Amino acid sequence: MSAAPAEPFEEFRAKMFATGADEFAEFRSQPTTSTSTSTLLSKPRQLMRRFLRLAPGPIQYARAAPVIEEAPHDELHVTLPLPGAHAEDVHVTLHAAELLVSNDVTHATRTITLPSAVLPDASAAFKDGKLSVTLHKCASPLDSDMHSIMVR
């Protein structure tokens, strides 16, 4: 068993060249006069898909979907990976049946639609690159105000 690469880029290179084939050779060839416009336009999309499939770390998780689990006692648990962030960089706001998560590191905001209305008394914790939010379900939203949830 080989040692794990020290840097994400080395892991990326190891994946790229594991097969011995050049994953990107077709993108280096020059177009000919018979190359169709649709073929030329599809190449950047194909290149990006292939790159994202092989890319390391934060790129892989940037669009990770949140996990929403229903728990006993009318609770909802929402888990969202936020690699590279710290608890002080993450802000969570509750508005009716939507959870808004903003990350100061990536300057991105995610809106997570919850499966049911929840009470504003929620708790949030951030550990090992994952945000965990615990919410209490209710029959209908109590108000339409925005409620900030402190992240521990």
TrEMBL record:
This is ArsA HSP20-like domain-containing protein. Residues 74-134 form the ArsA HSP20-like domain. It comes from the Eukaryota. Signal peptide: none annotated. CDD domains: ACD_sHsps_p23-like. It holds the Pfam family ArsA_HSP20. It comes from Exidia glandulosa HHB12029. Transmembrane segments: none annotated.
